[in-house]
Amino acid sequence: MLDSQTVKTMESGGPRSYDAGKKVKGRKRQALVDTDGRALVLDPQPADVQDRDGAVPVLRLSRRTFQFIAKAFADAGYTGDKPASATIIAVEIVRKPPDQVGFAVHLRRWVVERFFAWISRNRRLWKDPEATLASARAFLYAAAVMILVRRLARSA
Predict the structure, then answer these.
(1) DSSP conformation class of 81
(2) Which helix (H) or strand (E) holds 29?
(3) Where are the domains of the chain?
(4) pLDDT, tens digit, 9 for 90 and up, residues 79-101
(5) Most exposed among 47, 107, 136, 141, judged by the fewest C-beta atoms under 10 Å?
């Protein structure tokens, strides 16, 4: 599953911009997670990067470590030629049913949203205080590791 989350940044500097769709000045976190909600690729970017443009580096990064990925599910923000032709990964757009009124959980899409909720519980990640994208990426992966360790502790 592929999705993005826009978060506000603090006055620490670093690359940030304005996401006009969410009306937030900050950074966008692109995330590729597996079907169980475990983080595979996390990539912070300036907020003005469109989802379809930000998906290209995420999909290309995933090919280095996770060659077995054949299909990625995404929302309508990832429609277009760029994500579809970035790698051999087939990007399937999960659309809402035409008769849907109000909120409804979509098949396969809730997994990545749940991942964003999990990492946002980390106090350091509810806003992005980092001065560089490298340190922001490091803290995203640290939060993902903490989630995995908690899962292992519960199962033991």
Answers:
(1) H
(2) strand 24-33
(3) 2-97+107-155
(4) 999 999 999 999 999 888 888 88
(5) 107
